[in-house]
């Protein structure tokens, strides 16, 4: 069963917030059929620890203000600023320092899942590794 439209729309708000504070390579995958514990995984890159934290803060703020007071069930990594995880239940957001993102390669875990069209105004910030490597990806509207 694919991700619910409400979850997709909420993740788009998160992606817009990340894009606004210059997060890079913003991608989201429909993992509902693969995992069963969440519907969507979103990943956003940042060039340094300060930006990782700024992206996380902006996402939390927008989801609270624009999505009916949504707050994460849990937050991980705020102390280190290398990899922040925001768990909202139906979706999980990973904000990763570029080096950590390259090292862990989370996109590889979900390479067989459909990508979600985040409808960003700055699509150059949302190019996934697969797209840059000319691998086909399908999008969910």
From TrEMBL:
Highest taxon, organism lineage: Bacteria
Fetch the Pfam families from UniProt. Answer: RsfS
One MF term from GO for this chain?
A: ribosomal large subunit binding
* Keyword Repressor part of the UniProt annotation: yes
Could you tell me the Gene Ontology terms of the biological process aspect for this record?
cytosolic ribosome assembly; negative regulation of ribosome biogenesis; negative regulation of translation
Kindly give the Gene3D superfamilies that the UniProt entry links to this protein: Beta Polymerase, domain 2
Question: Which keywords does this chain's UniProt record carry?
Answer: Cytoplasm, Repressor, Translation regulation
Give me the Gene Ontology terms describing cellular component. cytoplasm
Q: Which InterPro entries match?
A: Iojap/RsfS/C7orf30, NT_sf
Q: Where in the cell is it found?
A: Cytoplasm
Q: What does this protein do?
A: Functions as a ribosomal silencing factor. Interacts with ribosomal protein uL14 (rplN), blocking formation of intersubunit bridge B8. Prevents association of the 30S and 50S ribosomal subunits and the formation of functional ribosomes, thus repressing translation.
Summarize the subunit comment. Interacts with ribosomal protein uL14 (rplN).
Database matches in PANTHER family? IOJAP SUPERFAMILY ORTHOLOG (PTHR21043), MITOCHONDRIAL ASSEMBLY OF RIBOSOMAL LARGE SUBUNIT PROTEIN 1 (PTHR21043:SF0)
What family is this? Answer: Belongs to the Iojap/RsfS family.
Designated name of the protein:
Ribosomal silencing factor RsfS
**Native source species:** Bifidobacterium scaligerum
Q: Which gene encodes it?
A: rsfS
């Amino acid at each position: 069963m694919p991700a619910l439209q409400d979850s997709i729309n909420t993740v788009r708000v998160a992606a817009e917030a990340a894009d606004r504070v210059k997060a890079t390579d913003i991608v989201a995958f429909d993992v509902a059929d693969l995992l069963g514990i969440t519907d969507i995984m979103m990943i956003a890159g940042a060039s340094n620890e300060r930006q990782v934290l700024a992206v996380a803060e902006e996402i939390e703020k927008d989801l609270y203000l624009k999505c009916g007071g949504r707050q994460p069930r849990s937050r991980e990594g705020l102390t280190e600023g290398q990899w922040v995880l925001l768990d909202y239940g139906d979706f999980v957001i990973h904000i990763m320092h570029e080096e950590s993102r390259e090292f862990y390669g989370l996109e590889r875990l979900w390479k067989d899942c459909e990508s979600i069209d985040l409808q960003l105004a700055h699509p150059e910030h949302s190019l996934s590794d697969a797209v840059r490597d000319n691998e086909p990806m399908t999008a969910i509207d």
